[in-house]
Amino acid sequence: QVQFVESGGDLVQPGGSLRLSCTVSGLAFSNYPMNWVRQAPGKGPEWVSTTNSGGTNTHYASFVKGRFTASRDNAKNTLYLQMNTLKPEDTALYYCQTNNWRGQGTQVTVSS
Questions:
Q1: What is the pLDDT of residues 54-90, one digit of tens each?
Q2: In terms of Cα–Cα distance, which of 12, 54, 33 is closest to 101?
Q3: Under 8 Å CB-to-CB from 112, ≥6 apart: which residues?
Q4: Are 13 and 112 contacting, i.e. CB atoms less than 8 angstroms apart?
Q5: Between the chain's N and C termini, which has fewer beta carbons within 10 Å?
Q6: Percentage, residues of the chain above pLDDT 70
Q7: Rounded to 5°, angle at Cα 31 from 57 and 98
Q8: Which of 69, 107, 106 lies closest to 85, judged by CA?
Q9: Cross-strand bridge partners of residue 107
Q10: Closest to 65 (Cα-Cα) out of 38, 44, 85
Q11: How far apart are CA 54 and CA 10, in angstroms?
Q12: What is the model's pLDDT at position 26?
């Protein structure tokens, strides 16, 4: 059974930082590129980043460039998203995804 479990979401003030994790089981994690996707209330899913299977290259949406850093540890079957200089518009449910699989997500709320 394939499982994606995200964690690390929280309520944070504007300008703050968070580190999200996504631990995967039930598939050969190191074979797959991994995506972070977010969905704000009342809006559709929004792609955030894609990290290649080896973790050597990541592409980012323009709205997070320079603020977010995605990485992965294939030995731990885990994908990370370091988020700095958070803004209220970053408020969303963040989830990891590849192919037809995704997790339930972790909630990030940026508010003073």
A1: 999 999 999 987 999 999 999 999 999 999 999 999 9
A2: 33
A3: 13, 14
A4: yes
A5: N
A6: 100
A7: 80
A8: 69
A9: 93
A10: 85
A11: 29
A12: 96
**Separation CA 67–CA 76 (nearest Å):** 24
The type of residue at 45 is P
Q: How far apart are the first and last CA of the chain?
A: 40
CB 91 within 8 A of CB 109: yes
* Helices and strands (DSSP H and E) totals, the chain: 0, 11
CB atoms within 10 A of CB 85: 13
Nearest-5° angle of CA 69, CA 88, CA 93?
A: 65
The phi and psi torsions of 101 (rounded to 5 degrees) equal -110, 145
